[in-house]
Design goal:
Shape: elongated
CATH architecture of the largest domain: Alpha-Beta Complex
Helix content: 40-55%
Order of helices and strands: EHEHEHEHEHEHHEHHHEE
Radius of gyration: 25 Å
Number of helices: 10
Distance between the termini: 41 Å
Length: about 325
């Protein structure tokens, strides 16, 4: 069966940006070179472009985008009215780009992902794949702490029953068909790494070596990484709730055994005052109860957020070429 696509697709590269003024000129330069090369090889249409999504930056990120917009035909811009978070900014870019493109590739602005792999992704699309994941060969450029936390995260997600691609972040190609399916997921608690595999369309992987950040600082602190991991787990799986149920069952069995032992000791007259064991038991059970309530509260909070159906982002400004002429289109909504 031949699934090769003969038509030349229009490609949009979506780049979420948050305070990336230092690295953005180099990012634009490298992506422009990639697009030029793909256009020359007739792998993508000449209308292909990069869409830079400013996620409510506090620095000159939007100014840099505007400066490159007029002289560079490949540059498009999308400015969000406030900081919506990486996943929502990426989703905003994907939903905007799907109206203009046949395929969309998402990539972070820090240039840690190898932009030369974009050509391999497009080749896989032309072979008939709807989703192409960019997967790291290794994590040698990461610190020991970053490697440890990342491996722990992927292992934990797997144990929790979440179907995610190992060593894959948000560097991927999506066809228009995949984007249309993704648009059906109107979630407040967005975790694209777990949602996209749920779509179930034909997918494959391309591997690459991850480089160090070209410039600027990482926007993911330890607190943000832990929050991101926790959001991913609770957004995709109810397994933590089931673990709590299991822990409660185990504690109940232990309590029955201890209760039986205490009753037998009382009957035999071997009663000993157990101040230490009593205090330890109270603190242990109390701690488990508080953790359980907190986890249940986290799920209830997510239900509360989802039930309000508020828009996850608002678009403040758009830089989009119109009929061959550059124009600055401004709109609001989300």
């Amino acid at each position: 069966m031949n699934n090769m696509r003969d038509t030349v697709p229009t490609l949009y590269i979506v780049v979420p940006c948050y305070n990336e003024e230092e690295v953005l000129p180099e990012t634009i330069s490298r992506l422009s070179d990639v697009l030029s090369r793909l256009v020359e090889k007739r792998m993508v249409h000449a209308d292909s472009a990069m869409l830079l999504v400013d996620d409510g930056s506090h620095d000159n990120t939007w100014m840099v985008i505007e400066e490159h917009f007029r002289p560079n035909p490949y540059v498009k811009g999308l400015k969000l009215a406030r900081n919506a978070g990486h996943q929502h900014a990426l989703f905003a870019g994907l939903m905007y780009a799907k109206e203009y493109a046949d395929i969309v590739i998402s990539i972070d602005a820090d240039l840690q992902d190898d932009v030369d792999v974009i050509e391999d992704m497009v080749s896989k699309y032309r072979e008939g794949y709807e989703v192409v994941y960019g997967v790291r060969n290794n994590r040698m450029t990461d610190t020991f702490f970053k490697r440890f936390t990342a491996q722990t995260f992927y292992g934990l997600m797997e144990k929790m029953g979440a179907n995610i691609v190992y060593n894959h972040a948000d560097y991927r190609l999506l066809s228009k068909r995949a984007l249309n399916q993704l648009s059906l997921y109107q979630e407040q608690n967005l975790f694209l790494r777990g949602i996209i595999p749920m779509i179930g369309l034909r997918s494959t992987e391309v591997s690459y070596d991850r480089a160090k950040r070209f410039a600027g600082k990482s926007k993911y602190s330890l607190k943000k990484m832990l929050s991101f991991a926790f959001d991913g787990i609770t957004s995709l799986s109810v397994t933590p709730i089931r673990y709590i149920t299991g822990a409660g069952l185990i504690m109940s069995i232990v309590s029955l055994l201890v209760g039986g032992y205490s009753l037998i000791s009382h009957i035999l007259g071997h009663v000993v005052t157990g101040w230490t064991s009593l205090i330890v038991s109270i603190w242990l059970i109390g701690g488990i109860q508080l953790i359980s309530l907190g986890l249940i509260g986290e799920y209830i909070g997510k239900i509360y957020q989802e039930s309000k159906r508020r828009p996850t982002y608002h678009i403040e400004a758009v830089l989009q070429a119109k009929q061959g002429l550059h124009g600055n289109l401004r709109e609001s909504g989300g």
